[in-house]
Design goal:
Distance between the termini: 43 Å
Helix content: 25-40%
CATH topology of the largest domain: Nucleotidyltransferase, domain 5
Structural class: alpha/beta
Low-confidence stretches: none
Strand order of the largest sheet: 3-2-1-4-5
Radius of gyration: 18 Å
Strand content: 5-15%
Order of helices and strands: EEEHHHEHEHHHHHH
Number of strands: 5
CATH class of the largest domain: Alpha Beta
CATH architecture of the largest domain: 2-Layer Sandwich
Number of helices: 10
Shape: globular
Amino acid sequence: MSKRAIYYDTETTGTRPDKDRVIEIAAFDPVDNRTFVQLINPEMFIPQEAIAIHHITDEMVKNAPSFKEVALQFSEFCGSNAALIAHNNDNFDRLFLKEEFQRSQMNLPDWTFVDTLKWARKYRSDLPRHNLQFLREIYGIAANEAHRALNDVLVLHEVFRLMIDDLPVEVVISLLSVSQDISRMPFGKYNGRSLKEVPKDYVQWLVRTGAFEKAENKQLKESFEKLNLL
C-alpha cells in the first residue's frame, strides 16, 4: 500500500523536546484537501522568547485541550499509513511528537517521517541557505503568517511539491536513505564553500562542539573524513 503524504508542523514552548512542550499542531492532507489545526495546553508557562516567534500566548492556550486529547484526533486525521513530512523533522518535530506521546503514555503510530530540510540540503546544495522561508522565496511562493503551524505547513507543501516534481513519496523516502557525499558546507560561517576550502581548525571546532554527533550531519562528517580533514 502506498504511503499517504501528510504535511505537518508543530509550535512549541522552546527547542528542547525533553523539557519543552507542543502548543500547536497542524497538518495538511493534499489528497483530500483537508487541514487539521489545534492549539494545545502545555501545562506550563510559554517563555517570552517563544511567544516572540509564534505569537501564541498563555491566554490563548489556557482552555485548549491537552496533548493526549489532541493526539487521538491527530492520529485519526493522519491514519496508520502516513508519511509525515516536515521541515527539520528529524531533529525537531518528530522528536517532539515522540516525547509528547511517551509523556501521554501512548504509543506513537508506526508512521514514516520525511525531513524536507534533509532533502533540500542533499539535492539543492547550490543554495546558500535551506530554511523554509528562504526556500519559499526561491520558489516564488507568496508569503503568509510565518511561524504559525498551519501557515508553515501550507508553504512547505508548495515548496516541497516543486522540489520533488512528481516523485511519489516512496521514491523520496528511498532517495533520502541513500548516502551521498557532500561537497559544500551546508551551514555556518563557511556556508556554501567547498569542503576542501574549509579550514581544518574550523572542522576541529565542529568536532568539539558536537556538531558531528547530530544525525543530520552524519554525511557531512563522512565527507570530511574522505578528504582527510577529520
